[in-house]
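Fold it.
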Amino acid sequence: MSNKDSLTESRKTVTWNIRSQGLLKTVLEIDIGDTEPVTVKTSLFKNAAEFELNGNTYNMESISLFKGRYVLNNGNEIIAEAEKKSVWSCKYKIRFMDVWFGLNPESIFRSGYKIFYNGIEIGSVKKKSIWNYSAIMNIPASFDRAFGIFLFWVIFVTWKQNNAAAAASG
């Protein structure tokens, strides 16, 4: 993001196509348009993943078992973090550098998410199918790519947790 005001002034968005592969260990292929797709490799046994972008390796992981707290880092530096408002909620407060965002479910009946900045909706993520985690993500063109991947990964982890909870209860 070049500056904070570019998020709300310009309504130009980009669309990312996200494709999921694999049954046990999910690999996400994120087509961000103007470069080669980014491959996000998820962990089989914990909420963690990594990807390479522009020669840098990024790691995403859960740092709180029950609260729903996640971080994006490249090496020892935390770039972004997301935290659920409560254990029972699917709403997140997300910090990227010194900028705060909201990530809220579309509704209790839909699996999509909306991205907010200063109370204004600036983006969305919608599943393509109920059978897998493939999705379409519309975000501001000025978004940092690593941060956009982190946002989707947080949603992906939430979808997986919701599916596991539904399977365990039914």
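The helical segments are 6-9, 145-169.
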